[in-house]
Structure formats: C-alpha cells, structure tokens
Amino acid sequence: MLFTVYQRFQKCEYVRTKLIKTEGRGCGLLIEENIKVGQFIIEYCGEVISSEEAKQRSETYEAQGLKDAYIISLDANSFIDATQKGSLARFINHSCQPNCETRKWTVLGETRVGIFAKQDICVGTELAYDYNFEWYGGATVRCLCGAANCSIFLGAKSHGFQVYNHVWEDGDDSCQDAHWNCGVMWMFEFKELITNRMKTTCVLFDIWKHRANGLSVLIFYPFYFLPSAIRRVYCLLCKHSTYLFECRYTVEEIPLYDSAEDEPSLKLPNTTSSFKSESIVTEKSYYPMIIDGTVGSEHQLESNARSVESLCSVPLEGAAMNTGKAERTEDMKLYSQDSQPAFPQKNVMASNIRSDSAGRNFNIGPGSDSKKRSQQIPNRRSKHLGRKQVNAKDVARLFASKEAREEVMEYEEIKNQATSNLNAVYDQIRPAIEEHERDSQDNVPIAEGEKWIKSECSKLKAEFNFHFSIVKNAVCPPQKANGETKPEGGDDEQTN
Ligand SMILES: C[S@@+](CC[C@H](N)C(=O)[O-])C[C@H]1O[C@@H](n2cnc3c(N)ncnc32)[C@H](O)[C@@H]1O
C-alpha cells in the first residue's frame, strides 16, 4: 500500500474527479469512482514558496480582490501556492465534517501533500477536507459546509479567531450556562424595547450558537442602529462579551450608522426576507480583500425610491385630472434630491489566515492590528446615494382638504423634531463611539446605545407616519364637511 501511494505520487495517478459548481462556495470537486478509506486521491500541487513569499502573495491576492485562498502550509517555513498553477486538488472545499484529509509524504526526499479518503466515499460525492484555517485577523468568511457541527466561520476554531472575536471557548466553565441565560435575558430586554416601547417595525434578531453547549441563542437586537463599534452581546451575568457577526433582516431599509460619517444613513441588506436571508457584517474598508454584499442594495434603494414615488403619484385631489407633462413636472417637484449622508459598505467578507502546521490553508491579509485599522478609517469612502426626500410643502399643496394639508405638515414637523433629537443623542455619545477603537468597545456603556436605539426608532416611526399620512390622504381623502364624499360601503367613519 505504501509503495503504491509512493508510486501514485510520482506518476500523478489520481482518482477520477470532476469539477462542479457549488452553491455559494465556488467550484468544488466530485469523486467519479467509489474509493476506500485511506485511499490516496490526489496530490495538492502548486508552487512551493517560503513563508515570506506566501505572506506577500496572499496580501497581493487580497488586494487584487481574490476571494479564494489556495495557499496551504507544507511545514513551518514553506507553503504550496496553487493559486496560479496547481492540480484539481485546489478546488476541494472545506468541511467541518470532512470525508478526506491532507497527509504529508516524502517522495524522493521531497515533502508533498496528498488528499486521502477519511472514509469510504461513493461515486458522485463532493470531496471536502478540514482546512484547519488559522485565522489571525481581518474579516470573517461564513462557512457553508452545512455540517451539523459547523464552526460557522472558516478559521473559527483557531486561537486568533477566538481571541479576536471573543468567542466563548469550549470548556469555559465560568460562563457556560450563563451565556444561554444571557441570550434569553437579552432577548426579553430587546423584545420589550422593540415591541412595547418602540413599536418599530425594524425588528431583527441574531442567532448565536453557543460553542460550549451547542444551543442556539436567539437575540433580539436592533443593532443596525448602533455603530459597528458597539455591536456586541454582553453577558449580563459574567460580563463576557462577543461580537454579533450575523444578522437576519425583517425590513428592507435598515438604518445603519457608520462612525466614519457624521449622521445616520441608510443601509440595505443584500437580501430582505426575514429568517431566510443573511448577511455578514464586517468592515469593508479595513481590509483590501472584499466581497461587496451591498452592490445589489443600491439598486434596491432606487427601486424603493421609485415605489414611494409611485405611491405618491396616486392622483391627489386637485391634481387628479392633470395628466401629461404638467403633472410630471409637478410630480417631480415632490422630491428634493437631498444628498444623504454616505452609505457605509458593510457587507464584506475576507479573512487573513495563516498556518503553522502542514496542510492548513493559508491566506494572509494585512492583519488585525488595530493601529493599522484605525489608520485606514480616515480614508474610508462611502457612496452618496442621493436619496429622494419628499418635499412636504409641495405635496401638501396638492391636497384639496385643509385638514389633509395640516396633517402632512404636522407629521413633517414631528419627523424633523425626531431627526434633531437623534442628532442630539448622537452628539452625546459621539465621544464614546469615536474615542475607542473597535477592539476596546467594552468601554462603551450599553445604556448609551439604548438611548440611541430609542431615538433612531422614534425617527423611523416619525418618518413612517409622515409618509403614511401622505399616502392615506391621497388614497382616502378626508370627507368634506357637507358629506359629499363618502367612503365606499357608506360607513361614516373613515378608515386609516
Ligand atoms: C482552496 S479554494 C477551494 C475552491 C474554491 N471553491 C474555488 O472555486 O476555487 C478555498 C476557497 O473556497 C471557498 N470555500 C471553501 N470551502 C468553503 C466553505 N465550506 N464555505 C465557504 N466557502 C468555502 C473559500 O472562499 C476558500 O477561500
């Protein structure tokens, strides 16, 4: 058997495989024949390079926007880079429940890495081995292996990842059950905050799988309202904290504050349906290797603006008969092209991964050191989306009813008040947000964040009421005093 493997390495005699396209993980490799446990499948070929070269190349690849990592470690000082040249083994994806593994072989005095079956594998099965990513900084890459024991992120098991992200460690007795309780406590706290006091529709939640006991913790947390800097879950019992990585959305437009900007702005998730959609929120500008999950969002914002436009172009009293050019001009006046504060690009994945043991995948980026990151913050540029704003005065003018006009103006006033309240609250918490680097946000009092959430929710509510009053008055104009206009069905009371 040993001899056979040796020969196979030498003669490049590999098991028959087929390249496939996977869901979300790029290409993958299928096996085209049944194989037995321990069987040699394929050699991981590529350029053998030094660790310095590996670091340099990885940074270059990241800068070039290459999402996939193809560098694996051979030993402490050398690596195999299959990015540009390599065998099909480079297409084998990672799994937390792998069916094959990497093994080192010495062939004619040379160390080589082979992929071997960990179990009997049937024809048509996708090959996957555990990358054992060693993460040492940068953004996180969601693992899509689908295994029951999935560690959620590539490299999540590595020490660097756990320390950096404050992941609860296995066997951390001090807060094992406390974290579950913590999740529940947060859940109720924020549920109450959102559903009873705020009455906001912007409810979102996070599911955090407890690493120690495997339970999923549901956390209701409107953290889009918080700057990324204070997006953490705190255990109220043991004060342990962790970042919230993943979030699910229930609304299409989610306000998000970017501390590089002066005012809150809008962020749209790349997907919108609650419970199913997901997105990983990290800082794009911090790291050069980026997947931009917000590209689609811009289109969405435009289409949202269009849908508001079409709602408001429901014929208004006094303007209903004016069709054609004149109406269009009037219609266009209803909006002012405010240049809204910048739109932070948050949906980004990248990882900086190194390895010091053989067969580990390797992907080096600029590192996680916070100095480097904070130096990059001033350069952050975000897009100005030019979100359309409804011009209350122009809209109100179109209503025949005085009552309707007054109502719209009244709601606009409330909306403006809520906006300036929010700005005032932000001015209070600005030092807490901006004086600390992301790594030391434990110091930001959560009460401050809650204050902000409250004001943000009030502003959203006021905005909603304002828009709603326009639509409502357009669709169901107030009845005239003489009772000329009656709602359908003859009800005396008007439905809002
Ligand atoms: C060695 S390449 C594997 C082949 C790659 N899928 C391709 O299309 O070229 C490693 C990269 O594939 C992706 N990948 C592999 N396994 C993954 C997984 N379980 N979940 C998400 N992405 C994965 C990651 O982008 C990773 O950096």
UniProtKB/TrEMBL annotation:
* Residue ranges of every copy of the Post-SET domain listed in the record: 139-155
Q: Where in the cell is it found?
A: Chromosome; Nucleus
Q: What segment(s) does the record annotate as region Disordered?
A: 353-389, 476-496
Any Pfam family from its record, for instance, is: SET
Q: Where is the SET domain?
A: 10-132
- Top-level division of the source organism's lineage: Eukaryota
- Give Gene Ontology CC terms: chromosome; nucleus
Gene Ontology molecular function, alphabetical: methyltransferase activity
Q: Which UniProt keywords apply?
A: Chromosome, Methyltransferase, Nucleus, S-adenosyl-L-methionine, Transferase
Name the GO terms of the biological process aspect.
Answer: methylation
- Does the entry feature the keyword Flavoprotein, yes or no? no
- Record PANTHER family: SET DOMAIN PROTEINS
In Swiss-Prot or TrEMBL terms, this protein is called Histone-lysine N-methyltransferase ASHH1
Organism in which the protein naturally occurs: Ilex paraguariensis
